[in-house]
Specification:
single chain; 150 residues; alpha/beta; Rossmann fold; seven-stranded mixed sheet
Length: 150
């Protein structure tokens, strides 16, 4: 899979998420980085669709974390925006569910990488023309191999 993506519309962001879901395995951590409105929740919705999640995937801003079951792998969707640091992440006890789930964390850069030996960072941005972009940055040999093979 190529590392850089131009996402002109919502459907393109969902499609990238669905493609990423096809590469995921239980225990995977995906960290979404980008400003407000860059498409983090939309990408997570695509990942959920690709995993077969039937319920709506919405931003967990006020509940911090949501677990979506019913797909081929459970999806744990976390919004770390309001977390103050590693202690707050530890309080969520996310590592209890990471082994059997795909964990997607919005605003998690610098806070959640310790939850897995390797992870995929997705850097999302919104250009002045309102087109989104995504850069896939693998951290670890497993993610590098999966992206290169797809």
């Amino acid at each position: 899979m190529k590392r850089e993506h131009v996402l002109p519309g919502l459907a393109d962001t969902h499609a990238l998420g669905e493609a990423l879901a096809g590469l995921t395995r239980p225990g995977d951590l995906v960290v979404l980085v980008g400003p407000l409105g860059a498409g983090k929740t939309a990408l997570t919705q695509g990942i959920g669709a690709g995993l077969g999640v039937r319920e709506p995937v919405t931003s967990p801003t006020f509940v911090i974390a949501r677990v979506h079951r019913g797909g081929r792998i459970p999806l744990v969707h976390v919004d770390a925006y309001r977390l103050g640091g590693h202690a707050d992440v530890d309080d969520l006890d996310l590592d209890a569910s990471t082994d059997e789930s795909v964990t997607v964390v919005e605003w998690g850069q610098g806070l959640v990488e310790q939850l897995a030996d390797e992870h995929l960072e997705v850097r999302l941005d919104r250009r002045d023309d309102d087109v989104r972009t995504a850069l896939l940055v693998p951290h670890g040999a497993g993610w590098t191999a999966r992206l290169d093979a797809s």
